[in-house]
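For reference, the entry.
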Amino acid sequence: MPGRRLARWVAAVPMAVLALATIYPLVFTANVAMKTRRDYVLDRFSPAGSLRWDNIAEAWAGAGMARFFVNSFVVVAFAVALLLLLGSMAGFALSQLRFRGSSVIFLGCLAGLFVPFQVIMVPLTRVMADSGLIDTYPGLILAYVAQFLPFTVFLMTSHYRTIPAEIVDAARIDGNTVYGVYRRIMLPLGVPALLSVGILDALFCWNDVLISLLMMPSPEHRTLMIGVNALRGQYSDDIPTFASGVLIAAVPVLMIYLFLQRQIADGVTAGSTKG
């Protein structure tokens, strides 16, 4: 119908403009990364004459992006693994086990979602410094866990609440302990939510700058995002190399969004509906 078709166009045009506004910075960055310094100075907006990988190789090896990439990968992998383990266990306990104070604990986790990191960064840094965890991988991993665990617990609790309590009761009648119910029943049923929450946690940790900057002040321990920020000063007169570093940092995130869109959407909407 004409009215419905017009409504679709009204919705499609702003979305197309938003998509172009989102894609253009990435295309511009990739185009700059393929230019020489001279070509960029002469005309920064013109298309690159050819695909040049020299700038990316310089940013990867010469500027130390390879080391920063490994640092980020190690920290994010361990942080997400710990977040999923603790979050799934806490979500199972808060949603399926009946004990006094569970509602208060869940409300405490919800309250943690509304506390900005800037409020706790000074005491957290003092605690980490007194514990000797500054400038160490465990220190940054624990900082990420402390920051993103309330979010993980909230989503896992919301997911496990959609599972009928009769399943847990039947497993207990069959002789399973609480740990057996978690390992044999709840953990397999929680795989879709764990995948979605794990992707979101990985994106949060990968894109973080502030926590990493506080916990990892030494240059050799920088994560990828801090390394990209350092490139801005180190290669202030070599914009193509700096653009190559930005591109290296963006590619893993783009791959996650490209291939795992459904899981990301499921994670964002987890707990919004029941059943």
Summary: The CA atoms of residues 92 and 102 lie 11 Å apart.
